[in-house]
């Protein structure tokens, strides 16, 4: 519940006075403060300015409420971060148990990467916190169910979803933190070539020359690695008598 400001912004009354009658003017009110509103505002703030810019005070300013009113809905910043993670996980497409497992896992991975790219602060939180929010639990249960229904054992299912998630979140982190932008790869490769003489580093020299002359773009290829994992899991699944 948002508290109104203690400062008087205007001396005008919220109704218009005429010579014959008094008619009340429509008032514009902000949406009441709620946990969902707080979490979505925090996500927007982190998306724009990074997680390091997120504080309860700044969040309260964004919402135009007093900081203490936030604690009626989230106990502390840790609970806020957990809630943000759960909202973001809810944006990822969930697989459907009983469907084509390989297509479902492929779509799930690409959806997860897209969401992590849209929220650059999220991958590190996902991999560094234990999240037991409803969206996370439903997301994981749907993933496990899809693999189990496809015939993977419990042991294989556990290894499989961890392999896919480790790759997806790791890829997102590397993509977001790589020090060179894709449109700068060629010039960066050309600058490093003198440090890579063919006599000492023949294979590094070879690939760097290709990036420098544009015959190889050198960009990260998420689909390539994902298909290696999916094909490997297919072999594991097919190897069982």
Question: Topology, pairings included?
Answer:
Elements lengths: L14 E3 L4 E3 L10 H15 L6 H8 L3 H4 L6 H13 L11 H18 L3 H7 L5 H16 L4 H24 L7 H8 L9 H12 L8 H18 L2
Structural summary, described in words:
This protein is an all-alpha fold and 241 residues long. It has 3 domains: 31-74, Arc Repressor Mutant, subunit A (Orthogonal Bundle); 79-177, Tetracycline Repressor, domain 2 (Orthogonal Bundle); 183-221, no CATH class. The protein contains 11 helices and 2 strands. It has helices at residues 35-49, 56-63, 67-70, 77-89, 101-118, 122-128, 134-149, 154-177, 185-192, 202-213, 222-239, and strands at 15-17, 22-24. Strands 1-2 form a two-stranded antiparallel ribbon. Helix 1 (35-49) crosses helix 4 and helix 6 (122-128) runs antiparallel to helix 8. The model is unreliable at 1-27 (pLDDT under 50).
Name a few traits of the molecule.
241 residues, mainly alpha, Arc Repressor Mutant, subunit A, Tetracycline Repressor, domain 2, 3 domains, two-stranded antiparallel ribbon, 11 helices, 2% strand, disordered N terminus
CATH class category name of the largest domain: Mainly Alpha
Radius of gyration: 26 Å
Low-pLDDT segments: 1-27
Tell me, briefly, the overall form: flat
Order of H and E elements:
EEHHHHHHHHHHH
CATH architecture of the largest domain: Orthogonal Bundle
Please tell me the total number of domains.
Answer: 3
Biggest sheet strand line-up: 1-2
Number of helices: 11
Q: Let me know the CATH homologous superfamily of the largest domain.
A: Tetracycline Repressor, domain 2
Averaging pLDDT over every residue, what do you get? Answer: 89
């Amino acid at each position: 519940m948002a508290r109104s400001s203690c400062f008087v912004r205007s001396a005008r009354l919220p109704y218009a006075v005429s010579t014959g009658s008094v008619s009340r003017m429509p008032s514009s009110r902000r949406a009441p403060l709620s946990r969902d509103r707080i979490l979505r505002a925090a996500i927007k703030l982190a998306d724009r300015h990074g997680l390091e810019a997120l504080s309860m005070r700044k969040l309260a300013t964004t919402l135009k409420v007093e900081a203490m009113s936030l604690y009626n809905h989230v106990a502390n910043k840790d609970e806020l971060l957990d809630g943000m993670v759960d909202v973001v996980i809810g944006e990822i497409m969930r697989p459907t148990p009983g469907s084509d497992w390989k297509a479902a896992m492929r779509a799930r991975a690409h959806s997860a990467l897209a969401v992590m790219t849209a929220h650059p602060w999220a991958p590190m939180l996902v991999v560094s916190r234990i999240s037991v929010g409803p969206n996370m639990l439903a997301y994981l249960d749907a993933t496990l169910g899809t693999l189990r229904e496809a015939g993977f054992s419990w042991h294989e299912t556990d290894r499989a979803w961890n392999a896919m998630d480790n790759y997806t979140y790791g890829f997102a982190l590397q993509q977001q933190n790589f020090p060179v932008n894709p449109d700068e790869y060629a010039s960066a490769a050309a600058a490093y070539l003198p440090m890579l003489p063919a006599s000492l580093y023949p294979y590094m020299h070879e690939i760097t020359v290709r990036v420098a002359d544009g015959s190889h773009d050198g960009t990260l290829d998420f689909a390539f690695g994902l298909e290696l994992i999916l094909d490997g899991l297919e072999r594991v699944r097919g190897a069982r008598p």
